């Protein structure tokens, strides 16, 4: 996990310092925030990383902060820290997308395991972003008519139905489909549709 950032949000200064020291010994860089408000204020300037979040903060509930992040489009993986009495709330946080939750006091090994899972999720999301961007770049090679044919195929329509909708012949639909497959370097309809969905081409 070397080189990853972990953003610690906890209103207890001693806890923040202890966690930062522990993670630094593992080669992890950290930032420390004493409230939800201070974290949100710093968020635009923070490096990509994972969020180590105390469930009970002085100015907010950790779940509320999670929801706020989602509303802002953040995909930062979250690991929740909780006191034993807050397990039910931690489960609610998991439903909101938290990677894991740790009951205080927790061991260094448990902390690193949870953060490793969070870092792996972040890596998968970053990979997904790259794949989506690549797919969108490929889709830009298609003509407007080829995209219309592709959308018809994605909706399960036969060539003759797509032809009727677009006011062209079934043979012309087949030509557009063939051209799209050639431009995108795919060999089958499932490959073609998979690439289209990855690019978000079918969202509308």
TrEMBL record:
Keyword DNA-binding: yes
Keywords: DNA-binding, Phosphoprotein, Transcription, Transcription regulation, Two-component regulatory system
Ranges of residues in domain Response regulatory: 5-119
Residues bearing PTM 4-aspartylphosphate: 54
Coiled coil: none
Alphabetical GO biological process terms: phosphorelay signal transduction system; regulation of DNA-templated transcription
Pfam family, one: Response_reg
Organism classification: Bacteria, Pseudomonadati, Pseudomonadota, Alphaproteobacteria, Sphingomonadales
PANTHER family documented for this protein: DNA-BINDING TRANSCRIPTIONAL ACTIVATOR DEVR_DOSR
Highest taxon, organism lineage: Bacteria
GO MF annotation terms: DNA binding
Start and end residues of each HTH luxR-type domain: 135-200
Listed name of the protein: Response regulator
């Amino acid at each position: 996990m070397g080189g990853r950032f972990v953003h610690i949000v906890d209103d207890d200064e001693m806890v923040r310092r202890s966690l930062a020291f522990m993670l630094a010994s593992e080669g992890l860089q950290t930032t420390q925030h004493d409230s939800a408000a201070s974290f949100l204020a710093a968020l635009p300037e923070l490096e990509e990383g994972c969020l180590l979040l105390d469930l009970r903060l002085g100015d907010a509930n950790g779940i509320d902060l999670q929801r706020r992040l989602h509303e802002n489009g953040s995909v930062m993986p979250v690991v929740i820290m909780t006191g034993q009495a807050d397990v039910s709330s931690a489960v609610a946080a998991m439903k909101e997308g938290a990677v894991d939750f740790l009951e205080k006091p927790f061991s260094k090994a448990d902390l690193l395991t949870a953060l490793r899972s969070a870092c792996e999720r972040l890596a998968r999301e970053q990979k997904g972003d790259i794949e989506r961007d690549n797919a969108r770049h490929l889709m830009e090679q298609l003509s407007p008519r080829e995209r219309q044919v592709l959308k018809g195929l994605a909706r399960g329509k036969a060539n003759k139905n797509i032809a009727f909708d677009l006011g062209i012949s079934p043979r012309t639909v087949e030509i557009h489909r063939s051209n799209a497959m050639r431009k995108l370097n795919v060999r089958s309809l499932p490959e073609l549709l998979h690439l289209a969905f990855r690019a978000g081409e079918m969202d509308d």
